[in-house]
Amino acid sequence: MVFLSGTLGFKCPQALAFCSKIHMDFKPRTRCLHNPFSRSPPRELLPTEDGSSITLQEWQGWGTTSPLPTIVTRIADELKDLEKDSDEKMTFGGKGGKIKGDFKKQEDKKHRETYRGLGDSEQKLQFFSARQIACRLVGSRGYLCQKCWLPHEDCMCSKVTPCKLWHGIRFWLYMHPKDFLRQNNTGKLLWQLFGVEAATLCLFGIAEQEEIMWNAFKCAGKDKVWCLYPNKSGVVKSVQEAFDQGLSTDLGFAETTTNGHYILNFVLIDGTWSNSAAMVRRLKDQSEHPYKKAHKNELVSPKGVAQMDQAKLAWGEEDICFISLAAGASAMHKLRPQPSWDRTCTAAAAVGLLYELQLLPKFCSIGLDKQAEAIEDTLAVLLDALTARRLRMG
């Protein structure tokens, strides 16, 4: 759930002052704080009343507008078929709500065989992502609230006040499947607050969602798409450098556009530090596809495997533009330590972006600071809910 905005380049004291509610003094720790979710007791699958497969309505209820991926449905159905054919019940628990017990051994064996039989790295990546997502969907039925991704007894939805994001901005939450339905993920707050059209979920390795995202980028044009990520191997601009030049001073055109040509698209990389590198490689489409080794739980890049260049297909150019923020440690660092690079979670990165844009003359009259404050308030609600759960579970 960690967004990785950088501290490169432009430093903005005013923006840092704006972010006082989500930033905190950071003191190095010798160990991580206790994770309450690792002690979640095992629970049996809670099927729908008619025992049906995952439906489009159920899928979109988790925070997406995309079609239901066929491969996700197939894997979820295979899980249920395997349960019927075996004497073991599916149980879930622990960190990430993973499959537990003897059923896990059977499921692992079956899917490792399937994985090894796949022909290329793209198929393996899509299978890896779909399997992660299918297991989370099946295991979360009746347990997690579909809006806030917290257990029903900890639901925070009644404390969240939705608001509108300025129509000229659209967030894309490019999320790793291992962060999908994580209780302490903060990217989910953006569509819970602004709606799924203003903050759109795109899961890494899910072809249907990636196609929707890249079609939107192609329509918008390269000069209106930015990825917030401290890309060490390429040119990274600050918000001031990216928007003080090249963008029309007349932002009123967004009032009348209906085809998305003048929407500013911001991609937030929503994954752990190690997983984000593979996500950015795929986003940039440099040369190779990340894929999951059958015997290790990690993503690597195999030599000699060509990757489709989405950016080049969309714009005729290779690079997506990267920008970094002047943000510091977020409040979520107190509960779940963030990467040492900047200790910033996804929601806090969105806050930092809106505050820094608000300081520029082109955006100062829009009221982005009010929308940033709304994210801060919602992030505080999530932090309170997670802290209360940790205390209750000991």
UniProtKB/TrEMBL annotation:
Keyword list, A-Z: S-adenosyl-L-methionine, Transferase, tRNA processing
Record flagged with keyword Transmembrane helix: no
Pfam families in UniProt: DTW (PF03942)
InterPro entries: DTW (IPR005636), DTWD2/TAPT (IPR039262)
UniProt GO MF annotations: tRNA-uridine aminocarboxypropyltransferase activity
Highest taxon of the lineage: Eukaryota
PANTHER family: TRNA-URIDINE AMINOCARBOXYPROPYLTRANSFERASE, TRNA-URIDINE AMINOCARBOXYPROPYLTRANSFERASE 2
Protein name: tRNA-uridine aminocarboxypropyltransferase
